[in-house]
C-alpha cells in the first residue's frame, strides 16, 4: 500500500501543554504504517475564537498509509488518550489534533473537510506549516495573519 503525505496541526492550552504537544508528536510517529517526516518548532499563540490560556502549537508532516477517515479516527483516539473533552465548541483543551491536508484529497463530509477550512485564517497553523513545508503556504496567506500574536519557542 502506498503512503500519502499528510499535515497535522497540534495544539494544547491546558495542563503541561508543551509536554502534551511533544507526546502527540511521538504518538503520531508510533502509528502503524506512519512516519513523522518533519516536525515544526513549538509556538505560543493567543487563543483564536476560544478562551483560556495561550496555546502551544506545532505542525507535523506525516507519511501515512491511513486514508483520511482512518487517520482522523486515530487523531481522535490520541486526543482521547490525552484527556480531551469537548464540553462546548472551542473549549480549552488538553490536546487538539487537526488534519490539515491529506495528499491531494479534497472532501467535505459531516466528519471531515479537506483541506482544513480555517487553516488559512490562523497564524498558529500557517507559521509552523511554513517552517516545515514552505511550498504549502503562500506569502499572501502569511500576510493575512500577520496581526495574530505568535511566538516561536
Q: How many distinct beta strands?
A: 8
User: Based on the structure given, which CATH architecture is correct?
Assistant: 2-Layer Sandwich
Helix content: 25-40%
Instruction: Give the SSE string.
Output: EHEEEHEEEHHE
Radius of gyration: 14 Å
Would you kindly provide a written description of the structure presented here, covering whatever features stand out?
The protein has 153 residues and is of the alpha+beta class. It has one domain (4-152): 7,8-Dihydro-6-hydroxymethylpterin-pyrophosphokinase HPPK (Alpha-Beta Plaits). The protein has four helices and eight strands, in the order βαβββαβββααβ. The protein has helices spanning 17-29, 68-81, 123-132, 139-144, and strands at 4-12, 34-39, 43-45, 55-64, 96-102, 107-108, 113-114, 150-152. Strands 1, 2, 3, 4, 5 and 8 form a six-stranded antiparallel β-sheet that branches. The protein has a two-stranded antiparallel ribbon with strand order 6-7. The chain is globular.
What is the topology?
Elements: E1 4-12, H1 17-29, E2 34-39, E3 43-45, E4 55-64, H2 68-81, E5 96-102, E6 107-108, E7 113-114, H3 123-132, H4 139-144, E8 150-152
